[in-house]
Amino acid sequence: MASGGEETTTKSRILVVGGTGYIGKHVVAASARLGHATTALVRDLAPSDPAKAQLLQSFRDAGVTLLQGDLYDHAGLVEAVRAADVVISTVGALQIADQTKLIAAIKEAGGNARRFLPSEFGLDVDRTNAVEPAKSLFAVKAGIRRAVEAEGIPYTYVVPNYFAGYSLPTIGQFLPLAPPVESVVILGDGRTKVVFTEEGDIGTYTVRAAVDPRAENKTLYIRPATNELSHEELVALWEKKTGKTFKRVHVADEDVVKQIQEAAIPTNIILAIAHAAFVRGDVHPLEPASAVEASELFPDVQYTTVDDYLQRLL
After folding, report:
1. Bridge partners (DSSP) listed for residue 194
2. Crossing angle for the helix pair 24-33 and 50-61, to the nearest 10 degrees
3. Would you please indicate which residues are annotated as catalytic (active-site) residues?
4. What distance in Å separates the CA atoms of residue 274 and residue 303, rounded to the nearest whole number?
5. Contact indicator for 153, 114 with CB cutoff of 8 Å
6. What is the Cα–Cα distance from 86 to 12, expressed in whole angstroms?
7. Residue 280: is it exposed, middle or buried by C-beta count within 10 angstroms (0-12/13-18/19+)?
8. What digits encode the pLDDT tens for the residues 79-123?
9. 204 Cβ contact partners less than 8 Å away, ≥ 6 residues apart
10. CA gap 314, 138 in Å, rounded
11. pLDDT digits (tens, 9 = 90+) for 129-174
């Protein structure tokens, strides 16, 4: 590992748990592309789902080692962790709480893993104003942070704010979750800043930070200045690109909350997270003692801008 404030160029053994998921596949791909000895822990090495089978084959083609296992096989988990320098969890919402099993395995493995990145990849769960049901989900993630810290495991928390793939194809519209046609529904006043990060970039920044001593025991915010826009600015940019003008339909804070309360799963969760980002505002000033910003830490990474992403949609 590098010392002081320098980035390391040493290649690491990286274990990704949850590597076939929405963000996990990007983390696995980035790890392999960056030359690390990458292992993906997967439940089924020969899935019947053609898309999943194709994904696993793409991992093999990239030189990734596929290891059968899951969070609930303690002995196997310890063995997998013992062979890794870095453990990255990208498990989905239903398994967030069960990451305590991964923490226990890391401790039992005896310090082989020099860094753990729990499954985060959203808003900053320690600094959120979310309402239910997102509030409870974020509380579970925060609880995992506290468990990691209590065990003294070196960590990095990755906070990209909003997935570009979730929000930009609809130009930030959530009611309905579809691109605007003649009018666009804006939650709140439309002036709250939101950060949009392309999923492949999340994978790249995550892996770069995972092996960088400057990100140890820090929160990595992925917040390039060009990707921090309000919903109003996003709509205006889309209007400029398409030559269209959209009527703005604003939904007040209390009305959004009412719709969240009345919606079924998973719509209520999607809306609650959107409400936290687009209405309450979850872009906070960085605290240098505990945070680093990805595009500043790794200025050589050519990330996808919001403008670039919208250009693809034309």
Report:
1. 229
2. 20
3. 141
4. 23
5. no
6. 7
7. middle
8. 999 999 999 999 999 999 999 999 999 999 987 889 999 999 999
9. 30, 34, 301, 303
10. 35
11. 899 999 999 999 999 999 999 999 999 999 999 999 999 999 999 9
